C-alpha cells in the first residue's frame, strides 16, 4: 500500500523554519484555547462546579501542545514564556515577535471554535443577550475575571507570581544539563501547569498568558459581547494580564538560572576537575627513613 502521508509530506512539507514555527505555535495555541475554554463551557453548562476538572483540562492541553510542537517550535503557546526564552538568549527577537503573533492568532481561533461549538448552549443560558456580568454572564467561558475583593495591587502580584512560577519550571525542563528526557517533559509540564493552576487560579483565574487573555477578549467583541470585556475594574484589569506576565516570566526564568541553572556542571566538567586533581597529586618517594613529596 502506498504511504499517502509520505507522498503528501514530500509535496507539501514547509522547508522555511520561520513558517514552520509560526504554524506550530498557531496550531498548538489554538488547540490549547479550544480545549481549555471548552472545558470551561462544559463545567458551566453541565451544572457542576468542578474547578479541579477544569484545571486538569488546561494542564493536559498544554502538555499535549508542548509534546506536539516540541520538535518544531518548542510549543511555548504563551508570549510571556517566549519572552523569557528571548531574554535568556535561546530565542531571537524576530522569532519572539513571530511566536507572539502566532499565539495571538491561535488563541483567537481556538476560542472562536469554542464559541461555535457551544453557540446553542450560550444562547440557551443567556437568552441571546451576551453578558459580561451577572448570573447569566457567559464571558467567563473565554475570559476569567478577578474576584471582587481583589485589589489592583493583588491582581498585579497574582499575575507576576503565577507567571514567575511557570517560567521557573519551564526553564528547569528546558535546561539540557538537567538531562530530562524530551518524551517525559510534556508529562512533567502537565503536572506543573496543574500545580500552578491550583495555586493561583482562585484570585483571577490563573491566566498568566497574555495571548490567552487578549485574544479571547477580541474574539468576544467580534461575536457580540461588546467593549465591556475591557471595562472590568474601570478598564484597569485588562492591562494587567496583558503585560505583567512578561515581567513575571523574566523574573522566574532568571531566578532559576541564577539560583540553580548556572551551577549545574557540564557533562565533562567533573572529568576535567578529576583530571586537575590528578595532575596536582604528588609522587612520594622514600629516601632513607624519610618520605619526600615530589610534585608532578
TrEMBL record:
Aquaglyceroporin that may modulate the water content and osmolytes during anhydrobiosis. Coiled coil: none annotated. The lineage of its organism: Eukaryota, Metazoa, Ecdysozoa, Nematoda, Chromadorea. Belongs to the MIP/aquaporin (TC 1.A.8) family. The keyword Transmembrane applies. This is Aquaporin. Keywords: Membrane, Transmembrane, Transmembrane helix, Transport. GO terms for cellular component: basolateral plasma membrane. The keyword Nucleotide-binding does not apply. Pfam families: MIP. GO terms for molecular function: glycerol channel activity; water channel activity. It comes from Litomosoides sigmodontis (Filarial nematode worm). The chain crosses the membrane at residues 57-75, 96-119, 149-174, 186-204, 237-256. Its main location: membrane. It is found in: Membrane. SUPFAM superfamilies: Aquaporin-like. It is a multi-pass membrane protein.
